[in-house]
TrEMBL record, chain A:
<dbReference type="Pfam" id="PF00005">
    <property type="entry name" value="ABC_tran"/>
</dbReference>
<dbReference type="GO" id="GO:0016887">
    <property type="term" value="F:ATP hydrolysis activity"/>
</dbReference>
<comment type="similarity">
    <text>Belongs to the ABC transporter superfamily.</text>
</comment>
<dbReference type="InterPro" id="IPR003593">
    <property type="entry name" value="AAA+_ATPase"/>
</dbReference>
<protein>
    <submittedName>
        <fullName>ABC transporter ATP-binding protein</fullName>
    </submittedName>
</protein>
<dbReference type="InterPro" id="IPR003439">
    <property type="entry name" value="ABC_transporter-like_ATP-bd"/>
</dbReference>
<dbReference type="InterPro" id="IPR017871">
    <property type="entry name" value="ABC_transporter-like_CS"/>
</dbReference>
<keyword id="KW-0813">Transport</keyword>
<dbReference type="GO" id="GO:0005886">
    <property type="term" value="C:plasma membrane"/>
</dbReference>
UniProtKB/TrEMBL annotation, chain B:
<dbReference type="InterPro" id="IPR000515">
    <property type="entry name" value="MetI-like"/>
</dbReference>
<feature type="transmembrane region" description="Helical">
    <location>
        <begin position="270"/>
        <end position="291"/>
    </location>
</feature>
<keyword id="KW-1133">Transmembrane helix</keyword>
<dbReference type="Pfam" id="PF00528">
    <property type="entry name" value="BPD_transp_1"/>
</dbReference>
<dbReference type="InterPro" id="IPR035906">
    <property type="entry name" value="MetI-like_sf"/>
</dbReference>
<comment type="similarity">
    <text>Belongs to the binding-protein-dependent transport system permease family.</text>
</comment>
<dbReference type="GO" id="GO:0005886">
    <property type="term" value="C:plasma membrane"/>
</dbReference>
<keyword id="KW-0472">Membrane</keyword>
<feature type="region of interest" description="Disordered">
    <location>
        <begin position="304"/>
        <end position="331"/>
    </location>
</feature>
Length: 347, 331
């Protein structure tokens, strides 16, 4: 970050650190398939606060990306939000028409996509694409939008923005493309930034730079960040709070330090146990036995029952609700109290 | 850019030569013009004189050498029928074909882009099914049949349109409709397919995430990316229009290059036929060069230096002002 051009990202009214920006309550997303309607996201609730990072953590296919797309209003045509509310700064986005929602995409809510290498439009210069948000929402001329684009490029640390602004996406490296995508997402100073696996496609060294950029941008504008990832280390380093998802459901939430320090849900516990720490060479890697249920075969009762070491009859019959656990944590398990005992280590 | 053009011109020379040689040889298989141009009771002596005067008694390679010697001096021979310069006749007929084919292609592209994009918005939706049916039908109907049915229904039975000729706007309707349907039908399917895949690309989601309206997403982001495959096919179809013009111009008495070709074949007017074919072949080569330039205009990835082109219609429509700045930085 060389020179600071506040105008590019400053929100209209400054957010206070820690204030609630996004509240998702009971979000349901259904996918229409030839086999019938599948519930991809079930009764998901979480909160994101200004200047903080919330991580949505889970395996591939657990519904974390789908949740992000539902919040951003970018679901594929086959998927629909069928229940719940998504309140962003006092407005329920889920209740808006697609047309009304366009006004919020950019100024209120920015999203950084997973695949930096293909997310940019190959036939337009990055300057044109960076300037587009200003053209759409502020009605700027091409010339003025280009000036803004150069400012943004400088802001996210792209060298020589004046000459690079006329280059095409394929002339940039993966890391630079991701910077450009981030610049687009924060162009209008959104209150909420969703980062959907922002570093998955990148080299490890570049990952660290990108995460630092996101952190700096968050600090600067106090926006709330929702980080979608399957990377436990990334969550530990970057996030303040975490919501662990499994088979479309949130199974545990809380401050990262507490959740990772003493997981209450057997799934969270299993995930953390599968991290190879303090293991000698040659030792077997731990993993959770079995695989997540397919979406059309999610059982009644607890979603984790087929892989859970603590499973009892009650788990097969009744799905545990997300209940408060202590002061600022929630967990969805009938045996949450016992799951941090030593029992699980024998699995 | 200049290197590109030079390379294209050099590489077109051989195919052009082959085309002319082929026409030259095939035309002579139709028989001796003497039997067409002299009275039925002409004597052997008159026939021999005619043949000799037009150099038709020489072996075919001598005739070829003569002809190409002339071509190098830009002398394409004279019409047996009128004595007029063959090149002049071909050039005079060409604009009529160009107008007809150009208007048809323009209409086909515009209509196909609208219908194809509309169909692609909801794959397998009602619009998609209707357009699929229409485009299949349009692409499969033979043009000569359509021309005859058109004349029968609209010109003879209803009397709304003239059967043939070039007088006034109404004379354009039947020839254009006849030529239009096939390119339209094929292009709708290409545009639809390219749009369906383009609309599912990640950059579409990115555009939506910026609050771009559906119209903007479709026209700016999807269509521009779908244009390249459509351009390839449109190029082929435009070449096909020249073939179609032979049939349609003959049926509707349109004084274009297609009609000139047919007439000169029927009258064994070799020089005119060769000039017409050569001109058509050259125009097809030019068309192909324009299509290649069109690609470069549409997509920076196919440009030799990856920068904005110095001149390209497609790109200049999109951002005319910014380009000037860039030309100076292009090596």
């Amino acid at each position: 970050m060389t020179s600071h051009t506040q105008t590019a990202t400053a929100p209209r009214d400054q957010l206070t650190e820690g204030e609630v920006v996004l509240t998702v309550t009971g979000l349901d997303v259904d996918i229409r398939t030839p086999k019938g309607v599948l519930r991809a996201v079930n009764n998901v609730s979480f909160e994101a606060r200004a200047g903080r990072t919330l991580a949505l953590l889970g395996e591939s296919g657990c519904g974390k990306s789908m949740t992000a797309k539902a919040v951003a209003g970018l679901l594929d045509p086959v998927a629909d939000v069928t229940g719940g509310t998504v309140v962003l700064n006092g407005t329920d986005l889920a209740a808006l028409t697609p047309k009304q929602r366009l006004k919020y995409a950019g100024p209120e809510l920015g999203i950084v996509f997973q695949d930096a290498l293909t997310a940019l439009n190959p036939v337009y210069t990055v300057g044109t694409q960076l300037g587009e948000a200003f053209r759409i929402h502020q009605g700027l001329s091409k010339k003025a939008a280009k000036v803004k684009a150069i400012e943004l490029m400088r802001h996210v640390g792209i060298p020589q923005p004046e000459s690079r602004v006329d280059s095409f996406p394929h002339q940039f490296s993966g890391g630079m493309r991701q910077r450009i995508l981030i610049a687009m997402a924060v162009a209008l100073g959104p209150r909420l930034l969703i980062a959907d696996e922002p570093t998955t496609a990148l080299d490890v060294t570049v990952q660290a730079q990108i995460m630092k950029l996101l952190r700096d941008l968050r600090t600067e504008s106090h926006m709330a960040v929702v980080l979608i990832t399957h990377d436990l280390a990334l969550v530990a380093e970057e996030a303040d709070t975490v919501a662990v998802m499994y088979a479309g459901n949130v199974v545990e939430t809380g401050p990262v330090r507490e959740v990772f320090g003493s997981p209450k849900h057997p799934y969270t516990r299993g995930l953390l146990d599968s991290v190879p720490a303090d293991v000698g060479r040659g030792a077997d890697l731990k993993s959770i036995a079995g695989s997540p249920p397919e979406l059309h075969r999610i059982p009644e009762g607890c979603v984790y029952q087929s892989r859970c070491p603590l499973v009892q009859d009650v788990c097969r019959a009744i799905r545990p609700a997300l209940e408060p656990e202590g002061t600022n944590r929630t967990v969805a398990c009938h045996f949450s109290a016992s799951s941090d005992t030593k029992e699980l280590d024998n699995v | 850019m200049l290197t590109f053009l030079r390379r294209r011109i050099v590489s077109s020379a051989l195919p052009l030569l082959v085309v002319v040689l082929g026409v030259f040889a095939l035309a002579r298989l139709t028989g001796n013009p003497a039997s067409l141009y002299l009275p039925l009771n002409a004597t052997e002596q008159m026939r021999a004189d005619f043949t000799e005067k037009n150099g038709l008694d020489n072996p075919i390679w001598v005739q070829m050498a003569d002809y190409f010697g002339g071509v190098l001096r830009l002398d394409f021979g004279e019409s047996l029928r009128t004595g007029e310069s063959a090149a002049a006749m071909a050039l005079r007929a060409f604009p009529a074909t160009l107008q007809l084919a150009g208007t048809t292609m323009l209409l086909a592209v515009v209509l196909a882009v609208i219908v194809g994009s509309w169909a692609a918005l909801k794959p397998n939706g009602i619009a998609d099914r209707i357009s699929s049916f229409i485009s299949m039908a349009a692409a499969s109907v033979p043009d000569f049949w359509l021309a005859i049915m058109g004349i029968w229904v609209f010109a003879i039975s209803l009397g709304w349109l003239p059967t043939s000729g070039v007088g006034g706007l109404t004379a354009w309707v039947l020839p254009i409709l006849t030529l239009l349907l096939r390119p339209f039908g094929v292009l709708v399917q290409i545009v639809r397919g390219a749009m369906v895949s383009s609309l599912s690309e990640p950059y579409i989601k990115l555009a939506r995430s910026k609050g771009a309206s559906e119209f903007r997403v479709v026209t700016r982001h999807a269509l521009r990316n779908a244009a390249a495959p459509a351009l390839t096919v449109a190029g082929d179809l435009a070449v096909g229009l020249v073939n179609g013009a032979v049939v349609v111009e003959s049926i509707f008495g349109w004084p274009g290059i297609g009609k000139l070709m047919i007439d000169s074949i029927l009258q064994r007017d070799f020089a005119v036929l060769q000039a017409a074919v050569l001109l058509t072949a050259i125009s097809i080569f030019i068309l192909n060069i324009l299509i290649d330039l069109g690609y470069a205009g549409l997509d920076a990835r196919v440009r030799p230096n990856g920068k904005r082109p110095k001149s390209s219609k497609a790109a200049s429509v999109a951002e005319p002002k910014e380009r000037k700045v860039h030309v100076q930085t292009t090596p």
